What does this fold into?
Amino acid sequence: MIAPTFIGDEVTASAWRLTGVRATAVESGKVQEAFEAALANDGLLLITAACAAELDSGRLDAAMRQARPLVLVVPDAADRIAPPELDSEVERVLGIEQ
It folds into this structure.
């Protein structure tokens, strides 16, 4: 079984490491590179909302639609940027927004 992957800030990455997740702390400007590398894994990819905001939205959407790996946007430890509401995000990705 492949361990889930996390991309985010150092504090939040430390917390995810305690759960057994392969966590990568990235600096601003290096998120795209870490994201592309993590997409090569066939598991679960967790990325903070702050890091996801640095990605090209089209690339993030495409990765979320592929569902392999499953990509989820999560809050960071400081809750600086709230992730999208899960129900509305699922509807948007599936193309059934109301």
In short: The CA atoms of residues 32 and 59 lie 10 Å apart. Residues 5-94 form a domain with the Rossmann fold fold (CATH 3.40.50.10580). The first strand starts at residue 5 and ends at 8. The beta strands are 5-8, 22-25, 44-48, 70-74.
